[in-house]
Write a sequence for this structure.
């Protein structure tokens, strides 16, 4: 993500107008990968405390940018020490790694080059970038689980070259990776879903079409996407749009969400209060998982400042689920609930009966092995009293903010609001139902 504050007002209007009417309804059943839950900028401290938190939160994937400028600061002089220790510790704790191969390096430019501060790879420099790609993959091909080419090329901060130059870079990089590691997972795109802002961002639609129609994605495994929005409804709408865009190319079920999240401070219109953060986490993870996202990486692990520190207006510092001192925000607990009780389950919309329940009530029902069941239910606005019939035993209502639980009966009445109710139990084989 990483945008500039000066266009936030315009961005806010664009997001609100484009996403406010999105529907959450998902009609098809779908198996949720057991390892769907990922985290951006996680594992970098390499401490026992951080990895204990990652394990407790159910994080399966960690995403890190492998910076060319850090790895090859001078031509032919390689420095992998930081990434060696990161990869070693992540694999020690059983984490899967998404490595983003990104950005330029200072020695690529001459002293007279006016574009040295503009991240992009010119056509004549693609062989140099490919050498970085090859050297890095040969070192980590047995330890990194997925490789992503670049980050948010449709945002000017990350790509100042032309669309054609990016297509050439992507095609060459994917071919090189496939030559070295034929069975590895390769992601292209890494597009930001934010609306088009002149001189700042470009619609990802043109990029997607150009990449596929050029053949650049012929050997790719999936598309990386960042459906940032002001709310979970907007993220769902962006995901649905990407599905429609990829369907003609057969990639509609190969979408990896490698960034999504909401800051809890600053000027971005995507910000959310810490009190509301758990609701946004649960809603976003459940709706994107039910839609078929292969992996959902939350942006991100840590804030820049601890609670009580002097704050800045830059929202980029406040996307974390935790503070730097490892104190959890409420959203961290919500993330762990979703990872634990959605991963490995099958979304079964046809198995949940609804009688007279308004469409503003969103309900996701999941079934797993050994008759385990999860129901996540909320109302987009206002409150709604509902009767729930959940045949089975061991019913628990989980608080997304605190993780506390209380026991429920098979037949219950609940007051549903915007904070999702997360209910788990062991089914008897009979279908559950919700009614007014």
């Amino acid at each position: 993500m990483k945008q500039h504050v000066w266009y936030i007002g315009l961005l806010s209007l664009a997001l609100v107008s484009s996403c406010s009417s999105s529907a959450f309804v998902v009609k098809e059943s779908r198996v949720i990968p057991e390892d769907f839950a990922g985290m951006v900028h996680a594992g970098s401290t390499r401490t026992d405390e951080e990895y204990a938190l990652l394990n407790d939160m159910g994080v399966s994937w960690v995403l890190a940018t492998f910076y060319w400028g850090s790895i090859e600061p001078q031509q032919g002089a390689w420095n992998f020490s930081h990434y060696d220790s990161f990869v070693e510790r992540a694999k020690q704790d059983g984490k899967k790694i998404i490595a983003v191969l990104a950005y330029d390096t200072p020695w690529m430019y001459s002293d007279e080059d006016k574009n040295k501060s503009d991240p992009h790879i010119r056509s004549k420099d693609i062989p140099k970038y490919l050498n970085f790609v090859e050297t890095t993959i040969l070192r980590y091909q047995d330890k990194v689980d997925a490789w992503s080419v670049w980050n948010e090329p449709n945002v000017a901060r990350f790509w100042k070259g032309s669309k054609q130059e990016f297509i050439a870079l992507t095609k060459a990089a994917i071919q090189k990776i496939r030559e070295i590691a034929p069975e590895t997972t390769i992601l292209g795109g890494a597009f930001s879903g934010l609306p088009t802002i002149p001189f700042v961002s470009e619609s990802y639609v043109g990029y997607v079409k150009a990449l596929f129609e050029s053949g650049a994605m012929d050997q790719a495994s999936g598309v990386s996407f960042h459906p940032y929005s002001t709310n979970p409804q907007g993220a769902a709408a962006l995901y649905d749009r990407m599905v429609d865009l990829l369907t003609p190319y057969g990639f509609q079920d190969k979408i990896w969400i490698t960034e999504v999240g909401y800051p809890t401070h600053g000027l971005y219109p995507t910000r959310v209060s810490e009190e509301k953060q758990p609701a946004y986490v649960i809603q976003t993870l459940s709706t994107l998982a039910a839609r078929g996202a292969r992996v959902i990486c939350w942006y991100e692990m840590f804030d820049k400042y601890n609670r009580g520190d002097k704050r800045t207006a830059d929202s980029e510092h406040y996307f974390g689920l935790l503070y730097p001192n490892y104190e959890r925000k409420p959203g961290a607990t919500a993330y762990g609930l979703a990872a634990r009780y959605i991963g490995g389950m099958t979304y079964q919309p046809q198995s949940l009966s609804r009688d007279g329940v308004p469409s503003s009530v969103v309900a996701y029902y999941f079934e797993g092995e050994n008759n385990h069941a999860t129901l996540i239910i909320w109302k987009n606005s206002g409150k709604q009293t509902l009767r729930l019939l959940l045949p089975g035993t061991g019913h628990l209502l989980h608080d997304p903010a605190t993780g506390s639980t209380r026991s429920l009966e098979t037949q219950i009445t609940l007051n549903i609001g915007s904070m999702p109710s997360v209910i788990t139990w062991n089914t008897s084989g009979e279908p559950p139902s919700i009614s007014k």
